[in-house]
Amino acid sequence: MLQIESFVFNPFQENTYVLYDDSGECVIIDPGCYEPFERQELADFISAEGLTVKMLLNTHCHIDHVLGNAFVKEKYGVRLYIHAKDEPVLRAVKAYAPNYGFAQYHEATPDAFLEEGQDIAFGQQSFKVLFVPGHAPGHVAFYNEKEKIVMSGDVLFQNSIGRTDLPGGDFDTLIRSIHQKLFTLPDDVIVFPGHGPETNIGFEKKTNPFCAVIST
C-alpha cells in the first residue's frame, strides 16, 4: 500500500513528499529542506521508518523545490531526475539564491532526464510522467493510476494554479496542461500539490476560478 508523508519546508512553505510502501523503498519529491533542522526532520523520518531511498525527483526546478537536492543526493547516494527543459531553470538557482537569503545553497546537477509517458517504478509502485509545462518549461507531474493520486507540483492547487510570471512561464500553456493532462484524469484522483492542502480533480474541475470546466 502506498503511503505519502509530506513536510512543509523553507519560507515559501513548499511541500516536500516522501512516497513509500511496504517494500521499504521510497522516493523523495521536491526536497525543499534548506535549514539544518529541516534536513534533520526529513532524515529522521526516513530513518525511523527504515526506508531505502531509491531516487530523487523534481517536478520542476524553481528554488523552493530544489533547496535540498544536494543534501538528498549526498546523504542517500541517489540520482536526480528532472525534465531536460528545466535544466536551465535548475542551473539558474545558484546565481539568484543569495538574493532570496539562501547564501548556503549547494547546487546539484541532474543525473537523468524524465520524458512524457515514462514509468517511474519503486517498491510495488509505478508512476507515469506527465509533461505539464506552463508554470515552468520542464514541469512534470507523477500519476499513479492504481492508487488514484497525482503529484502535481506547482501546476494545480486547491482552487488555484501556479504563477506564470516567472521566466519560462506561460498562462495559456499552463491552462492547456491542466485541461489536457490533469482534467482528463478520473474525478476521484487526489492531487498532492507543491504548496497548500490536497484536493481532487473533480473538485477543481467544478470550482477552480482559474481553470474550471463546465459539463455539457
Overview of this protein structure:
- This is Glyoxylase, beta-lactamase superfamily II.
- One of its GO terms (molecular function) is metal ion binding.
- By secondary structure, the chain is an alpha/beta fold.
- The chain has a single domain (3-207), classed as 4-Layer Sandwich (Metallo-beta-lactamase, Chain A), CATH 3.60.15.10.
- The chain is 25% helix and 29% strand.
- A six-stranded mixed sheet has the order 1-2-3-4-5-6, covered by helices on one side. Strands 7-8-9-10-13-14 form a six-stranded mixed sheet.
- The longest helix is centred in the first third of the chain and has 13 residues, at 36-48.
- The chain is globular, with a radius of gyration of 16 Å.
- The relative contact order is 0.14.
- Residue-averaged pLDDT, rounded? 97
Tally of helical segments: 6
Intertermini distance: 36 Å
In quaternary terms, these chains amount to: single chain
CATH architecture: 4-Layer Sandwich
So what's the overall shape? Answer: globular
Helical amount among residues, as a percent range? Answer: 25-40%
Helix-strand topology string: EEEHEHHEHEEEEEEEHEEH
> Beta fraction of the residues?
25-35%
Within the largest sheet, what's the order of strands?
1-2-3-4-5-6
Major sheet attributes: 6 strands, mixed
**Which class in CATH terms?**
Alpha Beta
**Structural class of the secondary elements?**
alpha/beta
Which radius of gyration do the C-alpha atoms yield? 16 Å
